[in-house]
Design a protein that fits this description.
CATH architecture: Alpha-Beta Complex
Strand order of the largest sheet: 3-2-1-4-6-5-7-8
Order of helices and strands: EHEHEHEHEHEHEHHHE
Structural class: alpha/beta
Mean pLDDT: 86
CATH superfamily: Spore Coat Polysaccharide Biosynthesis Protein SpsA, Chain A
Number of strands: 8
Number of domains: 1
Shape: globular
Distance between the termini: 22 Å
CATH topology: Spore Coat Polysaccharide Biosynthesis Protein SpsA, Chain A
Radius of gyration: 18 Å
Strand content: 15-25%
Largest sheet: 8 strands, mixed
Length: 273
């Protein structure tokens, strides 16, 4: 069973060395999972030649590729929000433009969705989780600490909330308002979807070493800013619960009405929560 339609979103910042392969892999993979697709790449004020590479790709794929250029960098969250707003298809898949995830593995997410539909179960989000993290040791340690801290703070049920490899029902973006400009958009998005009553299924995906460029996160200024943003989100979403005050009770109950209790992992490796 194929997905009805899919928009693939790639945020890109100084990713000239990797974004072409990501776009090409997506273009070759999407016909396997849907007959109606598009790719949206958001160039978030890159200072290398990402813009030129993307404009050339847009000439090669005029029917299926749209490129959006931010004149100035708006942050990871800002780039994703632009991509989500531009999406026109029923499902939105996104991952990073740095090629640490393999876009071809979106077939794993599509297979998980298909298995749930064939079993008569609804699902709003298919979420990847890293089989193993292919990063330097210090980044792996920081990542694990970050994961456990935010899981406790926000009450997350996902095993890997920070895995940027997701397939999301597009209508959810009209039901929650995303505000984050930084990488904390992942926390905000999952928390709001979870509290809305959305049903998640988790699928293992591979994570690879960065082959080009360097991470924009692992420096003192960014880590400090992320800490401030996490506390801000915690106050808004956990302490004040502002998003729940704005949400319609009927909408929340409608989404969660047919959500079953958690089941055992499927043969293909999916896990529902």
């Amino acid at each position: 069973m194929k997905l009805p339609s899919v928009t693939t979103v790639f945020p890109a910042y100084n990713d000239a060395g990797t974004i072409p392969s990501m776009v090409i892999c997506a273009m070759r993979t999407l016909p396997l999972i849907t007959d109606d697709y598009e790719v949206v790449v958001v160039n978030d004020g890159s200072r290398d030649h990402t813009a030129e590479v993307l404009d050339e790709l847009a000439r090669l794929y005029p029917r299926h590729l749209r490129v959006i250029h931010h004149p100035q960098n708006r942050g990871y969250g800002g780039a994703l929000r632009t991509g989500f707003m531009a999406a026109e298809k029923e499902w939105v898949f996104y991952t990073d433009g740095d090629a640490q995830y393999d876009a071809r593995e979106m077939t794993r997410l599509a297979d998980a969705w298909s298995a749930e539909v064939e079993a008569g179960r609804s699902v709003q989000v298919v979420n990847g989780y890293k089989i193993s993290r292919s990063d330097p040791a210090y980044r792996t340690v920081i990542g694990r600490v970050y994961h456990h801290v935010v899981r406790l703070m926000f009450g997350f049920k996902l095993r890997d909330v920070d895995c940027d490899f997701r397939l999301i029902q597009r209508e959810l973006f009209s039901k929650v308002q995303l505000e984050s400009r930084s990488g904390t958009i992942c926390l905000e998005m999952v928390k709001k979807f979870q509290d809305l009553g959305c049903r998640f299924v988790e699928v293992p995906v591979n994570h690879y070493h960065r082959a080009y460029g360097r991470s924009q996160f692992f420096n003192f200024r960014r880590v400090w800013r992320t800490g401030v943003d996490v506390l801000w989100l915690w106050m808004k979403l956990v302490v004040r619960k502002e998003h729940l005050q704005m949400a319609s009770p009927s909408l929340t109950s409608a989404i969660g009405a047919d959500s079953p209790t958690p089941a055992a992992a499927k043969d293909m490796g999916a896990r529902e929560i």
